[in-house]
Amino acid sequence: MALLLCLGMTAALARGCLHCHSNFSDKFSFYRHHVNLKSWWVGDIPVSGALLTDWSQDTMKELHLAIPAEITEEKLDQVANAVYQRMDQLYQGKMYFPGYFPNELRAIFRDQVHLIQNAIIESRIDCQRHCGIFRYETISCINCTNSHVVCFGYNCESSAQWERAVQGLLGYISRWHKLDTNMRTTPAFLISPSFTCLEPPHLANLTLENASECLTHH
Predict the structure, then answer these.
(1) Residues 67, 4: contact at Cβ < 8 Å?
(2) What is the pLDDT along the chain (218 residues), one digit of tens a residue?
(3) How many CB atoms lie within 10 A of CB 191?
């Protein structure tokens, strides 16, 4: 899992994964408008307000994923509900002593980042546990549009299954090559450093035999 965590995504136009949830706007609007009631110290108010305002942008900055920040709707619901539950509990209390409220917001923020990281990576790992080409639907954390992830899984139970998986890969690559280069996106499994045999210069003459050998060595 750690191998998938490294600097990769830029946050220039990022909105943040949680921002894509249907209840985010209402929830965080409430949190921002009631922040002045949460601390005895006036200095906590602008600090807490900035944390809430920059929540989405800061989330994307902290994800540090080497794979696209794309999350399934189910996992987004799970993360969002966990965050809202903690935030609602925090807001149920009366005024807090100086420093407590912004520190709690930071703790919730950090935990949220870890939840999103784990959700995205777990889905990718689950995808790779299939046999052959597998696709699952996601939501892009960058612009909140519907997206999908395509991966190649190695969990084949027989040589016949494996042969069908490799044939499916060849078919996928063939169809991918016919797409407009300006419209297509390259699946992560085709740009892995271990897949030199699947790099574009080699794909035109790729056969079932050498594709199977390449994937086996991976």
Answers:
(1) yes
(2) 333 333 233 333 346 799 999 999 999 999 999 888 887 788 888 999 999 999 999 999 998 888 889 999 999 999 999 999 999 999 997 888 888 999 999 999 999 999 999 999 999 888 878 899 998 999 999 899 998 888 888 888 998 998 899 889 888 887 877 777 776 676 766 655 455 555 555 555 556 566 556 655 54
(3) 11
